[in-house]
Amino acid sequence: MTKKIEAGVFLPTVRHGWVHSANAPYSPGSYKHALEVARLAEFLGFDFVLSPQNWRGAQGPTRFWGDTVESIAATGGLLQATDRIKVWCTTHTNVYPPAAIAKIVASLSEIGEGRVGMNIVTGGHQSSFYPLGLWDDTLSHDDRYDVADEWIKVVKKFWTEERVNHEGRFFKMDDGILSPRPSKMPTLVNAGASTRGLRFAVANCDVAFLMSGSESGFENSAKQAKSIAQELNKPDFKVYGLMTLIPGETDAEAQALMDHLEAGVDLEGLADLARGYEKNVKGFKEMSSSSLAPLGGAQYRSVMPGAFIGSYGTLARKIATQVQNADLDGILLVVPDYISHLNQIGRRTLPLLAEYGIECSVGANSKAG
Fold first, then answer.
1. CA Rg, the chain, in Å?
2. Alpha helices by DSSP H, 29-140
3. d(Cα 347, Cα 44) in Å, to the nearest integer?
4. Rounded to the nearest 5°, which phi and psi values hold at 167?
5. C-beta neighbour count of 71 within 10 angstroms
6. Per-residue buried b or exposed e for 85-122, using 16+ beta carbons within 10 Å of the residue's own CB
7. How does DSSP assign 249-274, residue by residue?
8. How many whole angstroms separate alpha carbon 106 and alpha carbon 183?
9. Peptide bond before 180: cis, by omega within 30 degrees of 0?
10. What's the longest Cα–Cα distance across the chain?
């Protein structure tokens, strides 16, 4: 029986993307580069692109994430510049008031004729928000999800009700009006992998994307999310795996690339990133391994842990195995080089998933090229 999945690209709207190394391929964290990647992804047949939101780069010699494009602004441009692909932005519940984000995303939905989505993040990295006056040190890890529960409830009210009245623990609205409302509900996604985070994702969103890969042990989280969805009677809830792919013409060549990236790992920048999480004294212990993935767990790495390393054919086998074992509904990809590597994976890796009984839209155009 064939299993159909969706495939997306985690856009490099931040400097160096997700390669924390002096040997990272070209990735300037610019809109122009993100636009080139999004158009390539659309041509190759990817279903969606997702841009991260970052407010402070790591303070190390490579300045990874030091240059960044605001996610919502980029989404508006990308929706205008594309025709088919879905474009998802990232929003922090501690930055944007719910009424404001409801209006902004409704406008994005109009620009993209319903192709917009929103990744909801509660914001647990103290160093990113404290300098901007956006950090509330009284909130615990679970409190931040309580805020997010109410935040998204209010947002949905603005998208579906003619007049919004709300009085809760964190927000109050009195006869709020939003017009025009989205013609269809924007796709809502979340990456929380803690027990509280998973329940938030399933209860409020359409998709959870979780840290995938060879070493992450995320399959239990994926199954737990499906179990919560069954409990909450959400049969259409989807789980995607976030996968870092290190490709090469051969397995040996791919490993050589991984070794090259590791040789330039920015330990100073990673240590700075770690300090930002550790300063979240009321939430650090409750954070999931997924949230701390950029730190590589106990061992710092130049890429997120659990990366799939191998030839384009080997990567297809590894992706297929993960999709089948975790019963994934989709994949979200990270690559070192978002032009050459993404192009080759779209043309040579993802079309091979059919040999493993997995249907994926990526690669259809490449057969003609």
1. 20
2. 31-44, 71-81, 98-111, 126-129
3. 7
4. -140, 110
5. 24
6. bbbbbbbbbbbbebbebbbbbbebbeebeebbbbbbbb
7. SSHHHHHHHHHHHHHTB-HHHHHHHH
8. 9
9. yes
10. 63
Exposure letters 141-180 (e unless 16+ CB within 10 A, then b)? bbbbbbbbbbbbebbbbbbeeeebebeeeebebeebebee
**Dihedral sign from CA coordinates of 249, 253, 254, 260:** negative
- Non-local (6+) Cβ contacts of 226 within 8 A are 237, 239, 327
Tell me the pLDDT of the chain (369 aa) as tens digits: 789 999 999 999 999 999 999 999 999 999 999 999 999 999 999 999 999 999 988 899 999 999 999 999 999 999 999 999 999 999 999 999 999 999 999 999 999 999 999 999 998 888 888 888 988 989 888 999 999 999 999 999 999 999 999 999 999 999 999 999 999 999 999 998 788 999 999 999 999 999 887 655 678 888 899 999 999 999 999 999 999 999 999 999 999 999 999 999 999 998 888 887 777 766 556 555 555 556 655 456 899 888 999 999 999 999 999 999 999 999 999 999 999 999 999 999 999 999 999 999 997 655 433
Distance (Å, whole) CA 167 – CA 118? 24
Burial of 79 per CB tally in 10 Å (0-12, 13-18, 19+): buried
Pair 134, 147: CB distance under 8 Å: no
Q: Which two tokens stand for residue 295?
A: 């730190």
| Interstrand relation of 48-50 and 6-10 (parallel, antiparallel or unpaired) | parallel
* 118 bridge partner residues: 89, 188
What single-letter amino acid sits at 8?
Answer: G
Dig out the tokens for 177 from the structure.
Answer: 């009006």
How far is Cα 77 from Cα 255, in angstroms, rounded to an integer?
A: 36
String of b and e for 202-215 (b: at least 16 CB within 10 Å)? Answer: bbbbbbbbbbbbbe
CA 115-8-148 angle, to 5 degrees, is: 65
The one-letter amino acid at 280:
N
How many residues are present in the chain?
A: 369
Predicted structure pTM score: 0.93
